[in-house]
């Protein structure tokens, strides 16, 4: 399993959640104004989250912090790195395109708790699979990671 398989998990969970959170909160009795206030707080909390993930990724290994934007290019051989990263991003975009519709369908049938359960399950797949199956990149050069002639390439 590589980041190209995990990007849809990350993007669909995030896009589905952020698209529907105001509506779901209103359905739970929270006012429209308050639901958007909560949404803005959630959106703003991402900024320090991105910075802390970037900082921690350098010290704890990017696969363990699930910093996919910096981790994805490292697992592709240099000759195909740009195409591989682009393809991974395209898979992720597909997930972010369909997620709001899927969440909307589930919201109608499963309700508030069902939507959060499904979102949590999708994100959990990415959180569990990346450390289990991802290539460890900490302290290794790109050539060691991806070039087949490298004696360290086979080491995980």
Annotation keywords:
156 residues, mainly alpha, disordered N terminus
Reconstruct the topology from this structure:
Blueprint: H1 3-27, H2 32-60, H3 62-65, H4 68-71, H5 81-133, H6 142-146
Describe the model.
By secondary structure, this protein is mainly α. It has one domain. The chain is built from 6 helices and no strands. Helix 1 (3-27) packs across helix 5. The protein is elongated, with a radius of gyration of 18 Å.
The helix tally amounts to: 6
| Average of per-residue pLDDT values | 76
Q: How many strands, what sense, and barrel or not for the largest sheet? A: none
* Helix-and-strand structural type: mainly alpha
Q: How many individual β-strands?
A: 0
The low-confidence parts are: 1-5, 150-156
What shape does the CA trace take?
elongated
Outline of this structure?
The protein is mainly alpha-helical and 156 residues long.
């Amino acid at each position: 399993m590589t980041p190209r398989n995990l990007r849809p998990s990350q993007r669909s969970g995030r896009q589905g959640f952020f698209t529907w959170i105001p509506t779901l909160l209103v359905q739970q009795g929270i006012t429209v104004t308050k639901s958007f206030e909560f949404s803005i707080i959630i959106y703003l909390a991402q900024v320090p989250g991105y910075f802390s993930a970037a900082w921690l990724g350098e010290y704890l290994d990017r696969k363990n912090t699930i910093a996919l934007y910096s981790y994805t290019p490292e697992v592709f051989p240099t000759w195909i790195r740009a195409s591989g990263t682009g393809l991974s991003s395209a898979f992720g975009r597909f997930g972010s395109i369909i997620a709001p519709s899927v969440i909307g369908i589930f919201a109608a049938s499963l309700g508030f708790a069902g939507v959060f359960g499904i979102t949590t399950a999708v994100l959990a797949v990415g959180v569990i699979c990346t450390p289990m199956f991802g290539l460890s990149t900490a302290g290794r050069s790109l050539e060691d990671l991806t070039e087949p002639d490298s004696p360290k390439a086979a080491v995980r």
